[in-house]
Amino acid sequence: MEEATEVKREAYLQLKKRLRGYSPFKKSITLSFNPILKTHWIYQDFFKNWQDNKTVYKDNELSILKTTYKDNKFLTPDDIYSLENESDEYFRNVYTYGNWGVLGHVIFKNWHVEDLSNLIPQFDHIYSGVSLKFKLHGLEIKCGMFQAQMMNAAQFMWKLLASAWTKKGKQIDPLQVTMDFNRNFPLDLANEAQTVQALIAAGLPKEVAYSQLSFVDDVDYVMQMIEKEKDGILPLTEVTPEDDADNIST
Question: In the prediction, which pLDDT does 85 show?
């Protein structure tokens, strides 16, 4: 199964069930892939006893062979240079060293579970919400896989363009071309609004409360807009020129 990380676990299980009938050899499935993420089902199912500093693992039911770019005799010098000088930690770990990858900044890792039920009486109000980023962790994995494919395609594209431009006298180093990817998670605006209201009710300055809104980049600008709106609202006791005219006519 080529590029096995692109295949869902359910499809693999279906394929495994269809290996029926008599055979003089033990039935098996061979998977080939880049070890993109430790959260992938392949790692969870087959690599529980795997060590990254090893190249071979074997037991009665499973055989694992780890290869790297050094085992690929078809790579060009440019390909080797690109792999050996990869600056991205994730891509270097996966595609250069052949280790299982771990994407950084995907989800908080510095946490621990603790029972805080005995502290409940100390609080006047208790709020709970949904961690959208945690629920979208699976989508983030797919984004990381797609990003890896896009990076490979882009490197090949720039090599072709650089070759064509060189013939026209335009020099460009394709290895100096970079691509950036950003994740745009849906916002839980209702929960953020409740958080801001709770902070203001607790006595915190509004400027501090508004800074907790994920879509606010410039808190000072927001405060200026609020003051500007206040300036445009007339006090209830203020008499406008129109009111004076009405009084005179009366």
Answer: 93
Pull the structure tokens for residue 51.
Answer: 């060590």
Q: Which amino acid is at 234?
A: L
* Residue that has been written with the tokens 């990380």 in this structure: 5
Q: Which two tokens stand for residue 157?
A: 């594209």
CB atoms under 10 Å from CB of 54, counted, come to 10
User: Which residue type, as a one-letter code, is found at position 192?
Assistant: E
> Amino acid identity, residue 49?
N
- Asked whether 66 and 55 are in contact (CB, 8 A), the reply is yes
pLDDT digits (tens, 9 = 90+) for 161-194: 988 888 888 888 887 877 777 666 666 777 788 8
Q: Residue 171: which residues within 8 A CB-CB, separation 6 or more?
A: 165
C-beta of residue 38 within 8 angstroms of C-beta of residue 28: no
187 phi/psi in degrees, rounded to 5: -95, 140
